[in-house]
Amino acid sequence: MKTQAGSFGEVNFSHAQLGDARRTRRLVKTVDLMCRRPGGTLPQKLNAPKDLRAFYRLMNCDEVTHEAILAAHRDVVLKRISQSHSTVLIISDATEMDYTKHESLSELGQIGNGNHRGYIVQNSLAVDAETRNVLGLCNQVLHHRDQVGKKETQAQKRQRESRESLLWLKGVEPLPANWSLVDVCDQGADTFEFLEHEVHRGRRFVIRAAYDRCIFQGHDEPSLRSRSDRRRRKTDTTVSRR
C-alpha cells in the first residue's frame, strides 16, 4: 500500500527512534511486508527466511520497545487530528493478547477466565466523524492484571493504581482538551472517575451505560434507563409488509 507520501511503513514509522537507522529501515520494511498479508502467521507474512530472521533480530533489541514503535505512529496520528476540520471520534475499547504458551515471558497477567496469561490491550482509535476515515491509534496501553488477594477491600481497590477501570482514563488523558473530540467508550468507562475526568476537561463523550443513574431534575423520568426507554418507545415505527 503506497501513496504519494510513501508506503504505510514509511509514513508511520520512518521517524521511529530505535537507536540505529538500520533498525528503523528494517521496521519500515517489515510493516510494509505485513500490510501485504495482514492475516496468517509470521512465517506467512514474512515468507522470505531472511526477512523473518531480520524481524526476530529486530524484536530482540532492547531499544525496540512497544512505546518506541507506538510513539512514531502516534505522532503521525496526532498531527492528522490537529489538521482535521471536523470532529474526531476517539473510539476506545480493550482486547486481549494471549501468550499462555510463551512460558519464558514473566510480565504477564491473567486474561479470559483466569486460565490464560497475557496482556489486556486498551486501544484508542481516532476516526474522522465526517469522512469516516480512520486516522490511526492515538494511544495503546498494555496492561497486565495484578495478583490481588481475595481480602482486598473496595477502599484498597480504589487506591490501587493498577486497577483496570483506569485504562479508559489513561487511553484518552494525553489528548489536548481544546481539540474537537468525542470519546466513544464501552460500558467499562461508565464510572464516576472517568465521567469526572471528561466533565472537568470539557470533553464530549458517548458511553454505553452499565448502570442506571439518577438524572438531573427537570425531566419527567427519575433515571437514565427510564428516560431512554421512553424515548425508544417514541421512536418505534411499524412498517407494513407488501
Shape: globular
Quickly give the structural class.
alpha/beta
How many strands, which pairing sense, and closed or not: the largest β-sheet? Answer: 6 strands, mixed
Helical amount among residues, as a percent range? 25-40%
Give the low-pLDDT segments: none
H/E topology pattern: EEHHHHHEEEEHHEHEH
Please report which band the strand proportion falls in: under 5%, 5-15%, 15-25%, 25-35%, 35-45% or over 45%. 15-25%
Mean pLDDT: 87
What does this 3D model show about the protein?
By secondary structure, the chain is of the alpha/beta class. The chain folds into 2 domains: 1-64, Orthogonal Bundle (Serum Albumin, Chain A, Domain 1), CATH 1.10.246; 65-235, Alpha-Beta Complex (Transposase Inhibitor Protein From Tn5, Chain A, domain 1), CATH 3.90.350. Helices cover 37% and strands 21% of the residues. The chain is built from 9 helices and 8 strands. The chain has helices at 8-13, 21-36, 42-45, 49-59, 66-83, 154-159, 166-172, 192-200, 224-235; strands spanning 2-3, 6-7, 88-98, 109-111, 116-128, 134-143, 181-185, 204-207. The strands form 2 sheets. Strands 3, 4, 5, 6, 7 and 8 form a 6-stranded mixed sheet that branches. Strands 1-2 form a two-stranded antiparallel ribbon. Helix 2 packs across helix 4 (49-59). It starts with a strand and ends in a 7-residue tail after the last helix.
